[in-house]
Design a protein that fits this description.
The protein is built from eight helices and nine strands. The protein has 250 residues and is an alpha/beta fold.
C-alpha cells in the first residue's frame, strides 16, 4: 500500500460504534472493520444484523452510562487502548411542536445529546492514554436547517453539533479530535416510511443536487477519513454528506 493510502488505514485501531445494530451505525461499523479496525458495535437489540461480520457486537443502551462505562473498561482491559468513537445511536419521535409533550422531547434529547456527551466523557481518558483519539458524532442536516414536525430531533442534533465544537476545544490539547458527520436524507429503517411515500420521496430527492436519496454505505468513506490519520489536522468541523442538499439554491 502506498504512503498516500496508508494514511487511511485503520490497522491496529480500536473503535466503538454506537447505534450499530442497523442503519448508518451498522454501515459505519462494517466500513471501519473492513478498513482494518478492531470494531465493537453497540446497539439496543440483542442480535447483530450480519452473522459473518468481524464486528464484535455488544447489546447496550447508551442512555445507561454505567453499562456503557463497564463495556468501555472491558474493551480497554482487553486491548489496552481505544482510538475511535462513533456516536451513531439516535431516535426520532416526530410530532409537530404544539403536539410534542415534554417527556417525548426530553427522551429524544436524552438519547441523541445527553448520552453522546456521557459516551465522549467516558471514552476520552482512554483515548488520551492511547495518544490518539477521533470522536465522530453523527448529526443531521437538521442540525443546520429548520425542519417541521420534529422539534426534539432538530434540537438534539443542533445541540450535538455545538457539543462537538465545545469538546473539540476541550479535547484538542489531549490529542483527541472531535468532528460531526452530517448526513442528508439516507434510506434507513428510520426513514423508510418517507422513502416509500412517492410524494415525500420525490420532494426530498428534488432538494439535492444529485436528485436522489443517499445510502448508508455512502457514509463509510467520510467516516474512515475522520477516523484515520488522513484527517489528522481536522477537528471541530462538519463533514456534510447530503448529495448537495445544503448548498442547493434555485
Amino acid at each position: 500500500m502506498s504512503d498516500s493510502l496508508n494514511i487511511f488505514s485503520l490497522e491496529g485501531r480500536v473503535a466503538i460504534v454506537t447505534g450499530a445494530s442497523r442503519g448508518i451505525g451498522l454501515a459505519i461499523a462494517e466500513g471501519l472493520v473492513n478498513a482494518g479496525a478492531i470494531v465493537y458495535g453497540l446497539g439496543r437489540t440483542a442480535v447483530y444484523a450480519n452473522n459473518d461480520s468481524k464486528v464484535e457486537y455488544i447489546q447496550c443502551d447508551v442512555t445507561n452510562a454505567k453499562q456503557f462505562n463497564d463495556i468501555v473498561e472491558s474493551i480497554h482491559k482487553k486491548h489496552q487502548q481505544i482510538h475511535i468513537l462513533v456516536n451513531a445511536a439516535g431516535i426520532t419521535m416526530p410530532a409537530r411542536s404544539e403536539q410534542t409533550p415534554s417527556d417525548t422531547f426530553l427522551q429524544t434529547i436524552t438519547t441523541n445529546l445527553t448520552a453522546v456527551y456521557e459516551c465522549c466523557r467516558i471514552v476520552s481518558p482512554f483515548m488520551q492514554a492511547s495518544q490518539y483519539g477521533s470522536i465522530i458524532n453523527v448529526t443531521s442536516i437538521g442540525s443546520l436547517q429548520g425542519f417541521p414536525g420534529n422539534p426534539g430531533y432538530i434540537a438534539s442534533k443542533g445541540g450535538l453539533a455545538s457539543l462537538t465544537r465545545a469538546l473539540a476545544v476541550d479535547y484538542g490539547s489531549k490529542g483527541i479530535r472531535v468532528n460531526n458527520l452530517v448526513p442528508g436524507y439516507i434510506r434507513t429503517q428510520m426513514t423508510e416510511a418517507s422513502y416509500q411515500d412517492p410524494a415525500k420521496n420525490q420532494a426530498r430527492a428534488s432538494r439535492t443536487l444529485l436528485g436522489r436519496w443517499g445510502e448508508s454505505t455512502e457514509l463509510i468513506g467520510a467516516a474512515i477519513f475522520l477516523a484515520s490519520s488522513a484527517s489528522s489536522y481536522v477537528t471541530g468541523t462538519d463533514l456534510i454528506v447530503d448529495g448537495g442538499w445544503i448548498v442547493k439554491g434555485l
